[in-house]
Amino acid sequence: MLAAVAWVLLGSKLLVVRHVEVSGTHLAPRDRVVAAARITLGLPMVRLDTAAVRDRVQGVREVESARVERVWPGTVRIEVRERVPLVAVERSGRFHQLDRFAMTVVDSARRPASLPLLTVAAPGPDDPATTAALQVVGELPAELSRRLTAVDAPSPESVTLRLGGARPGGADGDPLTVVWGAPGRAAEKARLVDALRRSAAGRAAGTIDVSSPEVVTTR
């Protein structure tokens, strides 16, 4: 009986890889994910190293994480979670879209209209200013996030937001600068920005500084 089971699993053509299913891809072409997975059709299912396949798929630039499972009798299912671009950074005439880990998801010759432009000295996953700016962007409430056009981060403690059309009563597209400061206390800072925008001083101001929520200033 053991010999028969071993033959079915390892030696016969009954339980071998016949199909590869991929789900969750929008940015990464399915064919590129399949090529990266390097799954051999006809390989006995029991011999498939799902962890190795997962690691190879996660090497695809647009992929943040992947899950690989066997679906008996002959299908391998790959579920992909793609990276989500948060900001765009200009490098050498091209615009690189960065996710929350500062990894490049895609790049193009034209600036993506839907993403704020990030300005930092050395953009990348090892740059503290980049990391701080991305954390701030990720923490923003939806109302501020929708109006965000640019982010400047000379240092991790001095993140500044550029908002378009953000002042009630102002002209359409009238810009507002918010000195946000370091990441953290996002809900508190957002409430202060909203309250100031509704005040006479806030409507007249071009800049609101909430970097220290205890001492808010406008100018």
UniProtKB/TrEMBL annotation:
PROSITE patterns: POTRA. It comes from Thermomonospora echinospora. It comes from the Bacteria. One of its GO terms (biological process) is cell division. Residues 15-83 form the POTRA domain. It is found in: Membrane. Gene3D superfamilies: membrane protein fhac. InterPro entries: FtsQ_DivIB, POTRA, POTRA_FtsQ_type. Pfam families: POTRA_1 (PF08478). Keywords: Cell cycle, Cell division, Cell membrane, Membrane, Transmembrane, Transmembrane helix. This is Cell division protein FtsQ. GO terms for cellular component: plasma membrane.
